[in-house]
Amino acid sequence: MKAGIWMDHESAEYIVYTNGSAMPGRNDHVVINSEYHLPLGGGDKLKHNKEQSRQGAFYRQLGELVAGLEEVLLFGPTEAKTELSNMLRRDHRFDKVAIVIRPSDKLTSNQRQAFVNEYYVNQY
Question: Which is the most buried residue in 26, 59, 60, 89, by most CB within 10 A?
């Protein structure tokens, strides 16, 4: 199975590509944490550690969606896609998953689906 994940550092949309078309997948919207915008409290180091912990949990949650795929297209406006890719490449459970990174702007859900469709249609 193939999929695309549009993402930034706060949220992601999981899009499945099957039978020549893209559609929202299971757990199609992933949000980093409902507490993301709440004050973190504590000193700068503590804030940084809490933020890193939340970001790691977010990437692990996305990794669970990627597990078992043949290929995943990571795209979005921030470097989050590269950070997730680096995390996945360090984990041997993802050795057989083709991970592709493409830049994109902020997109609507329909534009994201079209982006995934266009990528996979033009790939073959």
Answer: 59
**Domains along the chain with CATH numbers:** 2-123 (3.30.420.60)
Work out the angle at residue 118's Cα, subtended by the Cα atoms of residues 117 and 121, and round it to the nearest 5 degrees: 80
Low-confidence ranges of the chain (pLDDT < 50): 27, 33-38
**Owner of token pair 């990794």:** 63
Would you give the distance in Å from CA 31 to the centre of its chain?
10
pTM over 0.90: no
| Tokens coding 99 | 């991970």
Q: Which residue has the tokens 């757990």?
A: 27
Q: Which two tokens stand for residue 42?
A: 């504590």
CA distances from 39 to 11, 36, 44, 47, 65 (A): 18, 8, 12, 9, 29
